[in-house]
Amino acid sequence: MYSLADLNPVQREAVEHRAGPLLILAGAGSGKTRVLTYRIAHLIARGVAPWNILAITFTNKAAKEMRQRVETLLGSAGAGLWVSTFHSACVRILRREIDHLPGYARSFVIYDAGDQLSVLKSCLKELDLDEKKFPARGILAQISDWKNRLCPVEDAEGKAAEYFEKMAAKAYRLYQKKLMANNALDFDDIIMLAVELFRQNPTVLDYYRDRFRYILVDEYQDTNHAQYTLVNLLAARYRNLCVVGDDDQAVYGWRGADVQNILAFERDYPETMVLKLEQNYRSTKHILQAANAVVGHNQDRKAKSLWTENQSGDLLIHYVAEDERDEARYVAERIQRLKDREGRPNKDFAVLYRSNAQSRILEEYLLREGIPYRVFSGMKFYERMEIKDILAYLRVLHNPADRVSFSRILNVPKRGLGESVLAKVLLYAEEQGLDMLAALREAEYIPGVRPQARRALLSLSRLLEELREQSPEGEITDLVEEILDKTGYWAMLKADNTPEAQARVENLQEFLSVTAEYDAKIAEERDERTTGEIDERAAGEIDERAAGEGNPPAPTSAGISSSGAENGLSSETGDTPTLGGRGLPVPEVGDTTMAGSEGRPAPGVEGTSSDGSEDRLSSSEGNMAPSGGQGLPAPEVEDTFSAGVGGFLEQVALVADIDQLNEGDDGVVLMTMHSAKGLEFPVVFLVGMEEGIFPSSHSLLAETALEEERRLCYVALTRAKEKIYLCYAGQRLLYGRIQNNLPSRFFSEVPPDLMLDRDPIDPPPQRQGRTSGAPRGGGFGGSTGGGRKKYRDYGSLASEGTPLTTGKSETYHVGDKVEHEKFGRGIIVSVKGEGASAILTVVFDGQLKQLISEYAKLTRF
Q1: Is 33 designated active site?
Q2: Architecture of 386-412+414-487 per CATH?
Q3: Contact 688, 730 (CB under 8 A)
Q4: I need a labelling partner for 653 at 20 to 30 A (CA). Which of 370, 404, 527, 762 fits?
């Protein structure tokens, strides 16, 4: 059970909102996950069937957390609820419906970045395009952008203006042809094809519109055009769309997200109720004041301001480093000092940077200090050679049309089958219209293959058939162990007997842990499914009896009141969706990764598909079933072997390294600011806060890009719960060249009284000068010389500075707060030269100005 008394007034209003569109502007740390889960529980408690609710999140970790919270609140009463990422939900739909799109089969595989690159490179080769002029990754990025904007090949070709775009469009056409030939989708296809499916098949769209009468979308500010279109297609009938997001945390414009989706939500749904969650439960007052001040400089935003009842806490600490080594040394030593002084575990600390290239030197100094750490930089584990090899075997067994995976495994382990043999097998399969397993079976008919190679091909054919015929009841772990043993993969690694081979053995053992975890989850959810089906059948029987008596079906859930009238939820919007007009509930499984589950058919349904999702009603024609004149498409039933392997492959394809962040692991976390979104840490270091790095150099050319960088700074600041350190290096070796950068403008946007130039836990400095530890205006400084020096204990040298006399009496320090009659208030960030001719670089309201001190007419404040 749950109590609404646990919520603050605005949270409660969001949870109790009855029907119609709802926009929840949820600031960082404002408890939006609690609001979403309580809202789901409240809908179910007031009579909405769980299978009428679709909740969309952006990460598998968030989806899992939401499912667990709903289960804690409701127990088994939430069975049938869909909580998933956009991609997981669409894969689930496509597994049932993709046969409505010509050229695709339900056994499709999802290609990862490496597979996509391999296919694209083959396209460039066929088109005779020089990869130096047309980089494969650049072409892929263009294709991805087209797909995220729902731009099919024909439109891309028609709109291409420049030569590069025209060639990219040609590659796009061939790339899609090859994907279809391999029965494969890339990551961007998943949502694009779901939208295409709905647009081309109104009956299918009607089914899912009726199915998902209440839709909740988290992180709505991060949706791209394809995701935006998908949501609006599904929500068009009932308009019970609740979106949660924060335009101040919209940081994915570079990959297609459009912040206007949330800013213009009220235009799309004029009847929207708007609620703002501004109370923060994570950070201290000082951290929130700094974050509010920075993001407040953006113009294109909805006005809001985070506040908290937490303590004021420590002021922000800034450190001015001589170079990137000094910065890394400072971070490592600071972490060790805080561990020693306050007894903090390693996992309390996070070091955030703008780009992955900044992590190397940080890793070096953490190793020197003997501090355990974890680096998160996208999908890493599944990109290792040995893991990709075994995944390729699984893909070929699941989808024999997958030429990319077949090409990978043909000679791994070595079988004496080189590139020439591979080319002949691929050509034969294409000419004869065969999948790869069928082509192997006909190896004796493939022209130009020598007898020894033919024997090897037939041997591989027998091996793959044997693996494919493994018992349908078998687990994925058993199958992987069979692959490793029977292919000779284990033997190959053991014969190598090198440290690298041993590392690969350990990685494969970890992979077996992944498969074992998947098998255990499937077994557990198979048991849960049995319980859920009983509840749903009971609800269906109640509905059927009610319908037979001439009464509208009353929504029910196990152990929860079926009456929704007191909260304005009528039977029209809260009842169970029926199939075939019989009042039977749609059976469903609560987890989107249930692809390997089995279950008994629900009453009136032909059967429950082995991919873990509900089958549609069958008919004598095998394609449409009567349902009040509409009818629902009936799927083919996949064999259990393919469905089980397919489910595991989906999980692997849709998981990112960040989803594997285990809070129980005790290591300092190193990650990009983008990756840190949605996470929190007691102590955070922001490194590389320099113009051209953060904000990035490309963002300095456009105001919209600069505003996104500022939002990223807001996100990074609000990851911290207790302490935050802002680090700037006067000189940095990055991308192979030395850079002398100015301090980030974001320093000057933090109110001066919120920052210290020295950590209070440090001993007082011995030098004379400015009183250390005093609040200051984002003080900067550092070495301005051109040479590379060994790092030294920089302490607070930059903040104390070397006094510079300008004119007859004026003495300035780097970091002094000054005011100009035209430019307003600012901070001195650099001084070059001496005396009256010294050149002062000053940051005024985020703008850099260079002034000659004699004529600057600056006054202190």
Answers
A1: yes
A2: Orthogonal Bundle (1.10)
A3: no
A4: 527
